[in-house]
Design brief:
Layout lengths: L1 E13 L4 E10 L4 E10 L5 E6 L5 H7 L7 E5 L1 H6 L18 H12 L5
Antiparallel strand pairs: 1-2, 1-5, 2-3, 3-4
């Protein structure tokens, strides 16, 4: 699965002298916005040494995002990563869920089972 992203903004907060959190705000080729977050390990000077995504499936994206600056676009192919780690294909936006049965219908059916002679 090949995706194209544009990096819109980067937010980094230092939580402790050794650790921080980073969020990349990106837009995909269909103009869908999303945020990708990770925990950062910081050097004594406060520079980012390592980055660990909150979601392991985002590892290749986080590794690549570290090389880009705001406004840049890039492509990424998740196929090899997904195959290596056993991730199957998934729908980006799953189909709409079926509407739930109205409560009035459920109540009517329950009453029908309780009082069959009246319905």
């Amino acid at each position: 699965m090949i995706k194209t992203f544009t990096l819109n903004a980067i937010d980094h907060d230092q939580d402790t002298p050794e650790q921080g959190s980073i969020t990349w705000h990106i837009t995909d080729e269909n103009n869908r916005k999303r945020a990708v977050s990770a925990v950062t390990e910081l050097s004594r000077q406060g520079f980012i040494k390592t980055v660990k995504p909150h979601n392991d499936r985002e590892m290749p994206l986080v590794e690549l995002l570290s090389f880009y600056v705001e406004g840049e676009s890039f492509k990424i192919d998740f196929s090899m990563f997904n195959e290596t780690y056993g991730y199957g294909p998934r729908e980006i936006f799953p189909g709409k869920p079926q509407p739930a049965e109205p409560a009035s219908r459920r109540l009517k059916e329950s009453l029908r089972h309780l009082f069959p002679a009246h319905f």
